[in-house]
Amino acid sequence: MLNARRRQSKKAADAGQVVDAIIGRRLEKPQLDSLWPLVTHYELTLAEHERQRNDLRVANHQAALAVTRAQALQAAAQGALDRQAEFLAVLAHELRNPLASIRCAAAAIGTLARDDARLSRAQLIIERQSEHASRLIEDLLDLSRAKSGKLRLVFGPVDMRELIDAAVEACKPAIDRRGQGFGLEVAGCELRLQGDAVRLAQILNNLLENASKFTPEGGRLELRALPQGNDIVLTVSDSGIGMRAEALPAIFDAFAQDGRAVAFNGNGLGIGLAVVRELVQAHGGTVTARSAGPGQGSQFVVRLPLLAGAARALS
């Protein structure tokens, strides 16, 4: 192979000398023998160009095949997402009817259970589990709507201080039931933003419920809401089971649950945080999760854009 390249290089050099001689009129009537190097060089060059063209043709064909395969994979993935969203919507819709009947039955038991402690306890259990199932169904529907682009938000001016108070009031009974401590820090200024009040409250509720669910009895939760630049930063911290470093990248993916979380509290589908991410992004914000490791607690940080001049000190 090396010798062939050397011969080709020598022929090209010989051809170059012939061309230089003709141009310099040192060889006005070149002999036929003197033209052979030039002819050979031309043939070799032509063959090399043809090889390069064939290589380029093969590369283009392979690139076209790769693009076609990528498009097919993308179409298949999108089809799978569409089917998943459709399945979730149908499932949630079908679960609503029997759940409504269960809740009605629980209410009927309540009218009979005033003097019977066992019936009264059974009613509370049914109502609590029905409420939990109802939240799961709503999360399924929200996830389905988000994936299919049908999640509707009604934007308007929102006072985050009021939403925080309402979220804490809604989640406090479950926190107290588990004997968990709770700390609240809210900036002493107005915290107004443009958003959907119902969905923003849902973000807070999901994060607080998640923190309480994965924190042992006697643990502690904290919620901080502070302005930072043009944003409001909502931080929900807990002293719970924490997360492994390898679990963090997928923590906001639907149905992704750490095995330790399932073992500690398997009462869920792993969609609450996925819904949080969808709602936060729909408001132009970001949400991140942090943990120092198993047993070291977790922290969820939500950043949302404030209205211009919204962080004014309260009088």
Strand order of the largest sheet: 2-4-5-7-6
How many runs of DSSP E, i.e. beta strands? 7
Fraction in beta strands = 5-15%
What are the low-pLDDT stretches, counting only 5+ consecutive residues below 50?
A: none
Radius of gyration: 35 Å
Count of helices?
7
H and E order: HHHEHEEHEEHHEE
Shape, please? elongated
Biggest beta sheet summary: 5 strands, mixed
- Average of per-residue pLDDT values: 78
Structural class of the secondary elements? alpha+beta
**CA(first)-CA(last) distance:** 88 Å
Residue share in helix? 55-70%
Question: In terms of topology, how is this protein built?
Answer:
Blueprint: H1 2-23, H2 32-112, H3 117-147, E1 156-159, H4 160-177, E2 181-186, E3 192-195, H5 197-213, E4 220-228, E5 231-238, H6 259-264, H7 272-282, E6 286-290, E7 298-305
Parallel strand pairs: 2-4
Antiparallel strand pairs: 1-3, 4-5, 5-7, 6-7
